Amino acid sequence: MKHFNHVNAASVDDAVKLLGNSRGKASLMSGGTDLLGVLKDRILSDYPETVINIKTIPDLDRISEDAEGLRIGALARLEDIAQSPTVKAKYKVLAEAAAAVATPQIRRMGTLGGNLCQDVRCWYYRYPHHLGGRMICRRKGKGPCFAIKGDNRYNAILGAKSCFAVCPSDTAVALSALKAEIRIAGADGVRSVPVAGFYRPLGNVLKKDELVTEIAVSCPPEGCRQEFMKLTQRGSVDFSMVSVASVITLRDGICVDARITLGGVAPVPFSAVEAEQAIIGKPVNEIDAEAASEAAVMNAMPLSRNAYKVEITKTLVKRAIMKGLLSGKEIS
Ligand SMILES: Cc1cc2nc3c(=O)[nH]c(=O)nc-3n(C[C@H](O)[C@H](O)[C@H](O)COP(=O)(O)OP(=O)(O)OC[C@H]3O[C@@H](n4cnc5c(N)ncnc54)[C@H](O)[C@@H]3O)c2cc1C
Q: What is the distance in A from the centroid of ligand 1 to the CA of 116?
């Protein structure tokens, strides 16, 4: 592994200062479960001079709830989120998504901030430098997206234009369905962006001197039904081929609000607005769930080897809606 300087940040302000002083040549590290792999394989031409360890910042791993909703520090570990009684009770879709990430070991090291900011897994993008040289692709700023003409079985079917890598984060899908906000600290102060607006086709909105500090989720509507479903190729330890997070609210049997977000199919957590519209205002039943599943993929543009994802997406959307309805489990 190439050498780098390692510094511990004492506070959020300290981390921001360290980032500012590094002139864009530093990387943040939380659990390191993604970053260290990226550095070992030297997949990026920009190798950091300094790695700033932010796990040393006190109190950034808190999970707390008040009348407004849930607040989770960026350093909260995925396993703690999956096991939190508060998260399980009211924000079930997030607990399920966190529990579906990787392995117990990775969940015990990996943090929510790191999960949201992790790099994509497209095998062209992640091609190791020591095996004949890294691949310079669209996402790295130059060149084509090799997946378009190459082996694209795990790439995007929705919303991709220049880079077809999919957003790998399971928690982002659940948090988007919960309309969560990401708090960001930087040299210009603190700002909040909705999870749905955090991702860009080629990355995220973080500036070089910014870090994620907290995720805020407003109380979900009373009586909503939440589901997270993920299909993987392997039975365990695998990224989503397709995932679905749904938060659906019924009043007197009529759907009054629906959030359906898809993972594994687009460069960002994909809001399936057409699917939501297909059930809002209706007494949801199997026919409407079927209509929503068709609507979810109406704009799909599969590549040569990933049309199978269209069928899987339809199936998962329908199952998530029906499971939410049939389980009768309302969040109170
Ligand atoms: C074998 C394996 C299987 C996996 N399976 C899944 C899966 O099924 N689902 C899934 O969602 N993920 C999966 N992952 C990814 C895993 O969840 C991430 O590696 C982990 O969540 C990253 O968290 P971390 O704290 O270790 O981040 P780090 O590795 O420390 O950081 C990851 C990236 O985020 C940046 N970063 C970290 N914290 C912050 C912050 N607070 N603000 C701004 N930037 C930050 C870092 O600079 C780095 O670029 C898998 C990983 C492995 C190795």
A: 7
